[in-house]
Design brief:
about 0% strand, 8 helices, Vanadium-containing Chloroperoxidase, domain 1, transmembrane, about 170 residues
């Protein structure tokens, strides 16, 4: 349990360090846009577009992999029940209202890294762009004050793992 307290204390320190080093208004606006680009319904639209263009296998990889990611994400959220920064830090208010109560892992980050992996498999010449976008999604969730750094790190790991499994089974 001592190790978890050490990780939490490091996480809180890193969170405060990041919060102190951003231009609030500009970063908040940019973070909102970047964060919205990783909303789950957009992935469903992408899968439908792939299906419509005759890329059914790609659509199935997204649908099955994202479904797996969502199930594992919900299990982890309900199991860990880690409160969000605004709920445990004194005098801190997040810049957006999160869609659920708990912060670990970051679902936006998980979905973004899932998509970055998939899109990089299909369009390898753009992998740097895809992973840069997913890293910006992770940072945006911290800058918006709804996640600690380890929430986004676990989200990245979860999304990448689910994409790897999806490709291993369906590709």
């Amino acid at each position: 349990m001592n190790i978890l307290n050490s990780i939490h204390n490091m996480d809180v320190s890193t969170f405060y360090w990041l919060m102190a080093r951003k231009h609030r208004q500009l970063m908040t606006r940019v973070s909102r846009i970047v964060s919205m680009s990783a909303d789950g319904p957009l992935y469903v639209l992408l899968a439908l577009a792939f299906w419509a263009f005759g890329l059914q296998n790609w659509a199935l990889i997204i649908i099955a992999g994202f479904a797996l990611e969502r199930v594992l994400y919900l299990i982890l959220k309900k199991s860990f029940k880690r409160n969000r920064p605004a709920d445990i830090l004194d005098d801190f208010t997040s810049f957006i209202r999160p869609s659920d109560k708990f912060s670990f892992p970051s679902g936006h980050t998980s979905g973004a890294f899932f998509m970055a992996y998939c899109l990089s498999e299909w369009f390898p010449e753009f992998y740097l762009s895809f992973y840069s976008w997913s890293a910006m999604v992770a940072m945006s969730r911290i800058f918006l004050g709804v996640h600690f750094p380890t929430d986004t790190a676990m989200g990245a790991l979860l999304g990448t793992t689910c994409a790897m499994l999806s490709f291993g089974v369906l590709a």
